[in-house]
């Protein structure tokens, strides 16, 4: 009789254990929300404009790039959703790295808020990629662009990469919006 009761108790606990094991995955899926990037808050846009304008006034002629990183023959809407997330995550990696390198005291004040925003977006994309497409392989289009970026990081000056990243911040924000819109991005 005791064995029978143990077996019934075990059967009663199995669905609960299965539910408990499934729940963290559901929680992670819910943690992947890019909705807040559909439209940027006016104060975020203002901070981005201020940063870009300030940086633009600091540009020097030696910051011209040979590689046109942000000139592509395709639009992010042509990519799959996982490709879009990978594209934007990579773009954000470049921008946040470049913002982190800037050591001009006058620029520090204007890039703190955008850096915080971009770093948060980068983290949100990392979570989404890890939960929705952990083993995603980039398409041929994206792979070609990633290779172009890899080469540029080795061949271009830091100043060139800084200029490319910051001057194209609004293109990256549009790419972020497209990734956030998922299938609705056209």
UniProtKB/TrEMBL annotation:
One of its GO terms (biological process) is defense response to virus. Its main location: secreted. Transmembrane segments: none annotated. InterPro entries: IFN-lambda_sf (IPR038326), INF_lambda (IPR029177). It comes from the Eukaryota. One of its GO terms (molecular function) is cytokine activity. It is found in: Secreted. One of its GO terms (cellular component) is extracellular space. Keywords: Antiviral defense, Cytokine, Secreted, Signal. The keyword Secreted applies. The keyword Signal applies. Residues 1-20 form the signal peptide. Belongs to the lambda interferon family. This is IFNL3 protein. The lineage of its organism: Eukaryota, Metazoa, Chordata, Craniata, Vertebrata.
């Amino acid at each position: 009789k005791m064995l029978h009761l143990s077996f019934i108790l075990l059967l009663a606990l199995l669905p609960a254990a299965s539910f408990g094991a499934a729940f963290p995955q559901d929680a992670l899926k819910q943690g992947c929300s890019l909705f807040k990037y559909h439209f940027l808050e006016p104060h975020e846009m203002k901070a981005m404009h201020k940063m870009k304008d300030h940086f633009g006034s600091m540009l020097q002629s030696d910051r011209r790039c040979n590689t046109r990183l942000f000139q592509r023959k395709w639009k992010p809407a042509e990519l799959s959703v996982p490709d879009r997330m990978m594209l934007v995550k990579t773009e954000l990696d470049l921008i946040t790295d470049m913002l982190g390198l800037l050591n001009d005291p006058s620029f520090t004040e204007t890039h703190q808020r955008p850096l915080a925003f971009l770093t948060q977006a980068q983290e949100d994309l990392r979570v989404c990629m890890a939960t929705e497409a952990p083993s995603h392989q980039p398409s041929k289009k994206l792979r070609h662009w990633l290779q172009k970026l890899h080469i540029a990081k080795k061949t271009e000056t830091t100043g060139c990469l800084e200029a490319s990243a910051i001057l194209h911040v609004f293109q990256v924000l549009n790419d972020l919006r497209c990734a956030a819109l998922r299938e609705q991005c056209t």
